[in-house]
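A further point concerns the way the authors explain their paired sequence and structure data. Since the whole study asks how a given chain folds, the encoding of that fold should be made plain. A single example would do more here than another paragraph of explanation. An entry of this sort, consisting of the sequence and the corresponding C-alpha cells, reads as follows:

_____
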Amino acid sequence: MINEQIRDKEVRLIGANGEQLGIMSVRDAQKQAMEAGLDLVKIAPTAKPPVCKIIDYGKYRYELAQKEKEAKRKQKTIEIKEVRLSPNIEENDLNTKVNNARKFLSKGNKVKVTLRFRGREMAHMYKSKHILDEFAESVADIAVIEKAPKVEGRTMTMYLTEKR
C-alpha cells in the first residue's frame, strides 16, 4: 500500500535515509513524504504499529523485482532423467544403462528406471524384478533408492537419487 491507501491510525515511520522517525499519525507521515517529494510505502503491514517508509515507489518496485530475479537465478532445478530397460536385456546393454544413470546422478539429477513389458512378457513380471535390483546394486555406491520398484500398468518403475 502507498500514500492514501494506508488506512491505519498511526504508523512507525522510517525516513528516506533509513533513520527511524518514530511513531506518528498517517497524516503527519504523508505530509513528511510530500515535503520530501517521495511516496509513503507500507513495508511491514503485520507489525504493531505497521512500518512505513518514505521512498520512491517506482524505485522500490524495481529493487523488489531485481531481488526476485536474483533469487530465481540462484535456484537449483532438479530434473528427472529416465533410463528404460526391457526384461530380456543383456549384460553389456545393462552396463551401458548403468553408466548413463551414473552420469545423470553425478550431475545432480534424479533417475527414473523404467522396466517396460510387452506382450507375453507381462505374464512373467515378477521374475524380472531382479533386473531393477541389480541396477540399484550397481549404482549403490553413489545412489540410493528413493522409491522402491512398483508396478504401474505395463511398466515397473524405481526412482534413484544421489547419496548425500
Observations:
- The helical segments are 26-36, 57-74, 91-106, 129-138.
- The CA atoms of residues 108 and 140 lie 15 Å apart.
